[in-house]
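During the no-cost extension, the postdoctoral fellow (Dr. R.K.) reprocessed legacy sequence entries with the updated structure-token encoder. One reprocessed record is reproduced below for audit purposes.
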Amino acid sequence: MLIKMAKGLDFEKPILELELKISELKALAADGSIDLSEEIKKLEARLEKVRREVFESLSPWQKVQIARHPKRPYTLDYINMIMVDFVELHGDRMFYDDKAMVGGFAKIDGDKVLVIGHQKGRDTKENLIRNFGSAHPEGYRKAIRLMELAEKFNIPIITFIDTPGAYPGIGAEERGQANSIARNLREMISLRVPIIIVVIGEGGSGGALGIGIGDRVYVMENSYYSVISPEGCAAILWKDRLKAPEASEVLKLTAKDLLKLKIIDGEIQEPLGGAHRDPEQAAQAVKKCIKKALKELKLISVERLLEQRYEKFRRMGSASSSNS
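Re-encoded structure tokens follow.
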């Protein structure tokens, strides 16, 4: 039986080679004629050690690569794993339904919530439908329409961010891309319900911020949140997109960097190797974080909630907050 090595990222090669060897030995020992248990045990111990060495010392650029992994859980995956009774709502009531942005009402352990998020595709066909997770202005108009509906019924809002950025095409600009994002920023800051933000993959530029104003902002361990993509930054600073690894260092886009800069409220730990290695475990970590935040925010009066939200974003970028 021929066993092929799974495709992975460059820095995962030592891990994938060991996994392939273990699979081959298990296949040989499957009929019981050869006892390879000791060899398999040694290789599994070696695999665990190598895996920890690799994934506990990732560079910012390597984390960006994991954030973009095609098998990483997307918004609808998290909704299906941690919520029930999801009813998707469509359209911006002006132009069309942007499938790069999904949203609707659901329940998380009995608590009613509105959930909104960017949605990528698993293959080329679906990515074309989802526009690779890059929403048009209609997507952001849909998002704020649903948020205002949640406010009307006093239902908390959860958003999942996973986009390289808002779609920059001519048509999107003609239909008011910048205006739709700006409106979302203005309206979200004053919505009278709790808002929880989770960056589950890529958090690129205004496309991320368009659904990123909230009372609690969390970034998953192998996600990134930045004013621009590493490639875009490299093209501007060095006139060379191949300088993206260096740009990733400069941008301070990882969860740990963002925590130090007081941009976010917490980092959500992922399974060793990334959320795609164990989506269910990753989803439970996200659920635990959301439930804790919901419990805390429900105890705060609406007036104080709005004050804290305003103060939170006013503090960002100040010299005192960056250096303290």
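The longest strand covers residues 195-204. The beta strands are 84-88, 101-108, 111-118, 157-163, 195-204, 216-220, 224-226, 266-268. The remaining legacy entries will be reprocessed before the final report is submitted.
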